[in-house]
């Protein structure tokens, strides 16, 4: 886990990149099938989604998730693993809520079907959640934490 604000920012950039590129490709494949158009579509949709996700993470979701985690889910003496899983789970829940709305807004902007915004958002929630939670807990979280600590051994990034 990051130990100071600089480490936290670096970690957030890495984790957000990993999750957003994966979810962008996931949605592109869902809508286009397995082909080059899906890769192009996922890659083209990535930058704006990444900026949105970074802003959400930095200014809103991280605070909410950590607040809930440390108030209700873990105690100061809880294991690091329990803290990591609790924060990751809360982050996924709130990021899925907001990024599913982002996806629904993106469709409405493209199609002009604003009357379907709420239903698109509701439809996106389970589709995103069933991919984001396992990917975060089983792949992205462990890989990003390992890469982060290999690149920045504990105590090398000054606060």
Query: Topology as H/E string?
Result: HHHH
Low-confidence stretches: none
Overall pLDDT confidence = 94
Distance between the termini: 14 Å
Please state the overall shape, judged from the principal axes of the Cα atoms: globular
Total discrete domains: 1
Structural category is: mainly alpha
Q: Roughly what fraction of the amino acids lie in strands?
A: under 5%
> Helix content range of the residues, please?
over 70%
Q: How is the main sheet built?
A: none
| Rg value | 17 Å
- What's the total helix number? 4
Count of distinct strands: 0
Verbal overview:
The model has no long low-confidence stretch (mean pLDDT 94). This protein has helices at residues 5-32, 36-73, 80-111, 117-151. The chain is mostly helical and 159 residues long. The longest helix has 38 residues, at 36-73. Pfam families: DUF2798 (PF11391). It comes from Anaerotignum lactatifermentans. The chain crosses the membrane at residues 9-30, 42-64, 84-105, 125-144. Keywords: Membrane, Transmembrane, Transmembrane helix.
List the main descriptive attributes of the protein structure presented here.
159 residues; mainly alpha; globular
Chart the SSEs and their pairings.
Layout: H1 5-32, H2 36-73, H3 80-111, H4 117-151
Helix pairs in contact: 1-2, 1-4, 2-3, 3-4
Protein name: DUF2798 domain-containing protein
Pfam family, one: DUF2798
InterPro entries: DUF2798
């Amino acid at each position: 886990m990051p130990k100071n604000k600089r480490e936290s920012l670096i970690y957030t950039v890495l984790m957000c990149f990993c999750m957003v590129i994966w979810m962008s490709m996931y949605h592109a494949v869902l809508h286009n099938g397995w082909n080059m158009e899906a890769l192009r579509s996922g890659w083209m949709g990535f930058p704006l989604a990444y900026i949105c996700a970074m802003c959400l993470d930095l200014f809103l979701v991280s605070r909410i998730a950590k607040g809930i985690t440390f108030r209700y889910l873990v105690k100061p003496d809880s294991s690091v693993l329990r803290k990591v899983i609790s924060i990751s789970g809360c982050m996924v829940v709130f990021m899925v809520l907001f990024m599913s709305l982002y996806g629904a807004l993106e469709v409405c902007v493209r199609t002009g079907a604003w009357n379907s915004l709420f239903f698109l958002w509701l439809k996106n929630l389970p589709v995103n959640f069933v991919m984001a939670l396992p990917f975060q807990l089983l792949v992205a979280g462990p890989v990003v934490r390992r890469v982060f600590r290999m690149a920045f051994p504990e105590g090398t990034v000054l606060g």
